[in-house]
Specification:
The structure is a single chain. The chain is mainly alpha-helical. It has a domain at about 5-85. It is built from four helices and two strands. It has helices at about 25-35, 40-55, 60, 70-85, and strands at about 5-10, 15-20. The chain has a two-stranded antiparallel ribbon with strand order 1-2. Strand 1 (about 5-10) and strand 2 (about 15-20) form a beta hairpin. Helix 1 (about 25-35) packs antiparallel against helix 2 (about 40-55) and helix 2 crosses helix 4 (about 70-85). The radius of gyration is 15 Å and the shape is globular.
Length: about 110
């Protein structure tokens, strides 16, 4: 089995390289995913991002709410982190990633 590569996540003007998650990080994310505590999707995503950033970027993990970003960026970052933790499988070549829309029919396709 090959080790998963690091992933870059972006929120607003900030880019981080996130290493594959430790077992401790995976254990911290699992209850966040299972909880129905009313935080909403963005609150859950921020909690997951905070866990992923806490190992290498603790200062940034503590001030995520201050970043100017979009829900699309939050969704993509959360999807990448969940892939690093093994909660989501990585897309196969040509497949859309979590949070991405597939290409419209006809775009990049060749018809005989």
């Amino acid at each position: 089995m090959t080790r998963m590569a690091s992933k870059q996540i972006t929120l607003g003007h900030k880019v981080w390289t996130i290493r594959p998650l430790t077992l401790k990080q995976v254990q911290a994310i699992e209850p966040v995913l299972l909880a129905g505590d009313g935080k909403g999707v963005v609150g859950t995503a921020l909690a997951i991002l905070r866990v992923a950033l806490s190992r290498d970027f603790p200062e940034d993990a503590n001030c995520l709410e201050d970043f100017e970003t979009t829900t699309d960026e939050i969704s993509l970052a959360m999807g990448d982190i969940l892939q690093l933790g093994g909660f989501l499988r990585s897309p196969m070549p040509g497949e859309a990633s979590a949070g991405e829309s597939p290409a419209p029919i006809g775009v990049g396709s060749i018809r005989a």
